[in-house]
Amino acid sequence: MCGSIEIQPAAGKHAIEVMALAVEWDRPLAPEVLAQMEDTYRLSKDLQRLLPVMDRIQGMSLHFGDDGTTVSTPESGGLQLSQIDDDGKVVLTVSIRPDLIACNCLDYDRWNTVKPKAIEVLTPLVECGLITGHFINAVGLQYQDSFRIQTSEPLMATRRLFREEGPWLSPHAWTTDGAWHVHQGWFSLATSGRRVHNLLNIDFIAEKDYCVVRINGQHRIQAVDKSGREPKPLALADISDALDGLHLDNKIALRRLLSDSVCVQIGLTIPEET
Question: Could you give the CA distance from residue 27 to residue 29 in angstroms, rounded to a whole number?
Fold first, then answer.
């Protein structure tokens, strides 16, 4: 028996601390392409309304000489666009970098409200990259969930929070009366026939009177088939469905990780299962 142990999800009704989604490019964007994306932002009233704050990201390039010395020179690292609430808290950021465009939601509510806003922001910026001849290499989704468990007994916290017959925890986690860490990855297949790369990173922190667990799930649909040998290009029109599929992948992974009682507590349901 695990007894009465209080589990506190990070956001009360759910455990999500931050959610991020991204579009990755096949090769780094040149400075002139980043400049075109800045122009796209400056000419869009909708983007400026949603993300009124713009900051430049300072990049760095490294050059290795024949004599073994390393010379670093600053270059444009892109832009960061932000939305700030009335209390001065950053609730949404969009990072436009040479390798990707990432949308970070720091005030997550529901997928059905967050995703449309992210698509609205990403669409004109991704279009700009595609017009300049770049291709989408992958579309990614990342969640960080966090729980605080009110107990001084780490093993009790593990047994209360996690599904004992689940596939994601090693036997070591079930016998460690203290802090532990699990990091693993696997490939799966999207309904589109594209390969999905999944990562699950779990940190268990044991304090004197409580334990903290952070779960980082990353899921990336790649522009290749299951074998990784045949290209399956991703178009702008594919992003929405790709994100919905990755969102479901994340929910399935968590359902196989967390105990039934915790899934009920945070409202983690998968309609496709019923």
Answer: 7
Q: Are 162 and 257 in contact (CB under 8 A)?
A: yes
pLDDT at position 1 = 41
pLDDT 10s digits, 248-272: 999 999 999 999 999 999 999 876 4
Q: With H, G, I as helix, E, B as strand and everything else as coil, classify residue 252.
A: helix
Q: 95: which 2 tokens?
A: 């990072």
pTM over 0.70: yes
pLDDT tens column, 203-226 = 999 999 999 999 999 999 999 999
Contacts of 164 (CB under 8 A, 6+ apart): 174, 259
User: Is 94 in contact with 121 (CB distance < 8 Å)?
Assistant: yes
Give the per-residue pLDDT at 66: 57
- Antiparallel, parallel or unpaired: β 70-84 and 90-96: antiparallel
CB neighbour list of residue 203: distance below 8 Å, 6 or more residues apart: 181, 212, 213, 214, 216
| Beta carbons of 183 and 201 less than 8 angstroms apart | yes
Count the residues in the chain: 274
CA distance readout (Å), 92 to 19, 118, 253, 269, 270: 10, 9, 25, 26, 26
